[in-house]
Specification:
57% of the residues lie in helices and 0% in strands. With 75 residues, it is an all-alpha fold. The chain starts with a helix and ends in a 9-residue tail after the last helix. This is TraB/GumN family protein.
Length: 75
């Protein structure tokens, strides 16, 4: 199991469905247009969010990939 899958599972376990939807999914959807604006601007962009926003099927990463963006993890 990938770390992000484990984190997503943990977040769903620790939050009610409503909390998960409000705190993570809804926030990711609100952020998506802003993220797209930043990454389409000239120059390099670094966007930092909490790890929970990067894990799971409704993560920022999944939303960006579904729109055709290439997303990679840096260490």
């Amino acid at each position: 199991m990938a770390r992000s899958e484990g984190l997503a599972r943990l977040m769903r376990k620790e939050m009610t469905h409503e909390e998960y939807q409000r705190v993570l999914v809804a926030r990711n959807r609100r952020w998506l247009p802003r993220v797209e604006t930043h990454i389409s601007s000239p120059g390099k962009t670094m966007i930092v969010v909490g790890a929970a926003h990067l894990a799971g099927k409704q993560s920022l990463i999944a939303m960006l990939k579904s729109k055709g963006y290439e997303v990679s993890r840096i260490q």
